[in-house]
Amino acid sequence: xxxxxxxxxxxxxxxxxxxxxxxxxxxxxxxxxxxxxxxxxxxxxxxxxxxxxxxxxxxxxxxxxxxxxxxxxxxxxxxxxxxxxxxxxxxxxxxxxxxxxxxxxxxxxxxxxxxxxxxxxxxxxxxxxxxxxxxxxxxxxxxxxxxxxxxxxxxxxxxxxxxxxxxxxxxxxxxxxxxxxxxxxxxxxxxxxxxxxxxxxxxxxxxxxxxxxxxxxxxxxxxxxxxxxxxxxxxxxxxxxxxxxxxxxxxxxxxxxxxxxxxxxxxxxxxxxxxxxxxxxxxxxxxxxxxxxxxxxxxxx
Length: 301
Known about the structure:
Layout: E1 4-8, H1 32-43, E2 47-52, H2 57-64, E3 73-78, H3 100-105, E4 115-119, E5 122-123, H4 126-137, E6 144-151, E7 162-169, E8 175-186, E9 192-196, E10 199-202, E11 208-216, H5 220-235, H6 245-254, E12 259-264, E13 270-271, H7 277-290
Parallel strand pairs: 1-2, 1-4, 2-3, 6-12
Antiparallel strand pairs: 4-11, 5-13, 6-11, 7-8, 7-11, 8-9, 9-10
Helix pairs in contact: 1-4
């Protein structure tokens, strides 16, 4: 069964100040999603599932709808705050999505085998998609997953703090634990640090982090469904708490219910968190084009 690729694109870009999913960065107006699609198709992916909000459906489909080869299948699913299991409740004042774990649940009806997951606002590099596809192509419907890990120092922004899934890697390359950390940045001493419960903690250079590029399969859905109901029961009245993929995977690993192999990420990663990141992203794509990694126009026939 051919693997699918899920693109997390429902975020509204509050720190960025706009829809970064459809912002043009390439020489012919290509978005970061375009480069991911191009790399993924070349790696072997033929089924794409976009998770978006209804509010951006028109703009999103106008940007991407006509770019796919005829042998590629495309699905769109919608993540909205009111898409919760029957019998659950939440604070009616909440207006933000429930996080990446909730987003994945929106794909359950269109995914029937192994699948990858990526962010819409990250550039992962061609090699990462090859590694991801190769892992998924031999995957069975068991809780044996993968993630592509990147070195923490290669994933920071010069313009403000970022959130990352900080990982501990075992001797055999497996994920031992992963914790979602927010407000990660270099301090005045050049150390990579974040604050947790009022205390400053440090992250060593070379530590692998998750950028939401996962290899999963349908065995994850029953777990997410059960845990999301429990999440709403405990935190449904909160306006900001989110149901994250890394947190759910960490629980599976901790309880020895899943094994996750950490694949080595591409040497070239960059992403867009802040508007100030735009110029850096454009320069790096320009460099990749000049090196011949990509053509001037990705989709020119």
